[in-house]
Specification:
Strand order of the largest sheet: 3-4-5
Shape: globular
CATH topology of the largest domain: Double Stranded RNA Binding Domain
Distance between the termini: 54 Å
Low-confidence stretches: 105-114, 116-120, 122-134
Oligomer: single chain
Length: about 190
């Protein structure tokens, strides 16, 4: 094991009000501590608009974990890459790299009681035929567009955007439904 230490707190971002460590930083953490770790990914299934990956991470000392990730083209144009990233993120979290900062392993009472929808590295829609209790979350491009439009057309800062979102929808942009995000984007465009 490397004598270098990794300060994950430097790379945290807020997602749905909680600290979150993106996969790229979990990977940096792994490589800082275990430069010789072995990572392998495999595209297990690829069919019309669906990609399923398996990722395996093995530490030089013998620890090993496998993660799975799937995505669809209706959620992301680069769904194949997102599926691979999701699988890798889950394998890293299973080894302890960012586990405390990702909701895949959140088995708290809030999550069990139907609290906020858990966040994974690349959220994916429920398979056809699976009933939903909530609307699908806003996509990452929608959330990015909200902040971009507000900044460029309205000269609004991040805090002001979140304040307007909470005033209108009762939640920040990252927690809006897809429909609400579309409405918010349209409203920002019309006001600009």
């Amino acid at each position: 094991m490397s004598e270098k230490s990794f300060d994950a707190s430097r790379y945290l971002r807020k997602l749905n009000g909680k600290d979150y460590l993106e996969v790229k930083w979990r990977l940096l953490w792994l490589r800082t501590e275990h430069p010789e770790a072995v990572i392998s990914t495999e595209l297990v299934k690829h069919e019309t608009g669906l990609a399923l990956f398996r990722a395996r991470v093995a530490l030089p000392e013998g620890g090993e974990a496998t993660g799975w990730g799937s995505e669809t083209s209706s959620d992301f144009a680069d769904y194949i890459e997102k599926a691979e990233t999701k699988a890798l993120g889950r394998a890293l979290a299973a080894l302890g790299y960012g586990t405390q900062f990702c909701e895949d392993f959140d088995f708290s009472a809030e999550a069990a009681a139907g609290g906020p929808t858990p966040v994974v590295d690349a959220p994916v829609a429920a398979p056809a035929g699976v009933a939903r209790t909530r609307e699908a979350r806003a996509t990452a491009p929608q959330v990015k567009a909200i902040y971009s439009i507000a900044r460029s057309r309205r000269a609004l800062g991040e805090a002001e955007v979140e304040e307007r979102s909470r005033a209108t929808y009762g939640r920040p942009p990252a927690e809006l439904s897809r429909r609400q995000a579309s409405q918010f984007i349209d409203a920002l465009k019309k006001q600009g």
